[in-house]
Amino acid sequence: AEATRLVADRLRDAVATHLVSDVPVGAFLSGGIDSSAVVALMKEAGVVPRTFSVGFTEQQFDESRYAMLMARTVGADHTHVPLTGAQLLDQLPAALAAMDQPTGDGVNTYVVSGAVRSCGIKVALSGLGGDEIFGGYPSFARLLRVADAARVWGRMPDAVRRLAASAVRVAGGDSIQASKTAALVDTDGEISSMFPLLRQVLSADQRAALMPPSRAESVADDGEPYAALLRAAFASAPGASAFAQISYAEARTYMHDVLLRDTDQMSMAHALEVRVPLLDHELVDLVTSLPDACKVSNGTPKRLLVEALGPMLPDAVVHRPKQGFTLPFDPWMRGPLRSFCEARLGDRGLAGRDLLSGSAVAELWASFIGCERNVSW
Question: Which of 123-132, 179-188, 317-326 has the largest mean confidence?
Fold first, then answer.
């Protein structure tokens, strides 16, 4: 109860502080717990929230109904922006031009930021950080479930672990799942070793296969840089709990190197300032210092955040299926974006620049178009 009260107070302070501005402040509203929490706290601070969401005709990607439900709950001035693949195609050249390095997430933020700025809003709040701090990602449940057993297994002789990993690879064939499971079996069982494997998209062998021969060896031998980073961080905080370690790992890798960078870069491409109150340093310090028992799910996702806000969050928002804000790239890349992608992956694009192996890129693209989800790629 004390933890819930402390977090509730800190959440109110964080959002109130981030609302200080000499221009109106809007908010991204996907309809998930994090953005809904920020909007509810804006309302409690005495502001009529100006909210924005992007929706799609592809129902499995569309969160509009939850965003609109939350907007009605707080009496927000809500703007819904429908987006089709053809409309995204018109924006893609400008979005790619705004990047200084490749990213798979930045286009999402580019689109919603453009919609917000076009309505005259110069500052917007985002719920970014809620998954990392309050335990919303699947990595929390997966690693917490196996952490103790994995550490025991990690003390087995190296030869035993290598033999078991080989057996998994043989049994699973070329599947991605078998490759990832085998790599996990071969680790020392520490979160610093397992977390990067759970989060990676392509294995070291797959990354090497995409490289031209001159670069393949260096990629295959690069190890896992995030594992070394996390080992060093955890060694400096030996008393950190498993939840705190996973929270740090998520925040320092995907959030730090992808989400925050993309949000800053793509919002500023539209001259929009995005603020992240759930990453207020005093709030983060408080939450990470609390015992795991206060944060581990008891059937409620992001339990501590939800309990701190109480009735401010509708039950339909709290207990909906988890769905990150993702554009429908899967169907669009097979439809309206297909020729755009193939032109930029082909000999006149990426494959012709000696950065990647043209044949490997073509194979990867063919496996995607063919919906081959359980092969070596």
Answer: 123-132
> pLDDT of 160-190, one tens digit each?
988 988 898 788 776 777 778 888 888 898 9
d(CA 197, CA 192): 10
d(CA 277, CA 11): 8
The three state secondary structure string of the chain is: CHHHHHHHHHHHHHHHHHCCCCCCEEEECCCCHHHHHHHHHHHHCCCCCEEEEEECCCCCCCCHHHHHHHHHHHCCEEEEEECCHHHHHHHHHHHHHCCCCCCCCHHHHHHHHHHHHHCCCCEEECCCCHHHHHCCCHHHHHHHHHHHHHHHHHCCCHHHHHHHHHHHHHHHCCCHHHHHHHHHHCCCCCHHHHHHHHHCCCCHHHHHHHCCHHHHHHHHCCCCHHHHHHHHHHHCCCCCCHHHHHHHHHHHHHHHHHHHHHHHHHHHCCCCEEECHHHCHHHHHHHHHCCHHHCCCCCCCCHHHHHHHHHHCCHHHHCCCCCCCCCCHHHHHHCCCHHHHHHHHCCCCHHHHCCCCHHHHHHHHHHHHCCCCCCCC
Tell me the CA distances in angstroms from 127 to 56, 305, 307, one per residue in order.
20, 12, 17
Quote the CA–CA distance of 148 and 165 in Å, as a whole number: 19
Q: Which is nearest to 116 in space by CA: 105, 127, 106, 125?
A: 125
Report which of 48, 41, 52 is spatially closest to residue 109, judged by C-alpha positions.
Answer: 52
pLDDT value at residue 350: 85
pLDDT-derived band of residue 219, with 50, 70 and 90 as boundaries?
A: low
Residue with tokens 């302070």: 13
* Percent of residues, the chain, with pLDDT higher than 70: 95
Closest CA to 35 of 13, 54, 57: 54
Q: Would you give the distance in Å from CA 229 to the centre of its chain? A: 19
Integer Cα distance of 178 and 184 in angstroms: 10
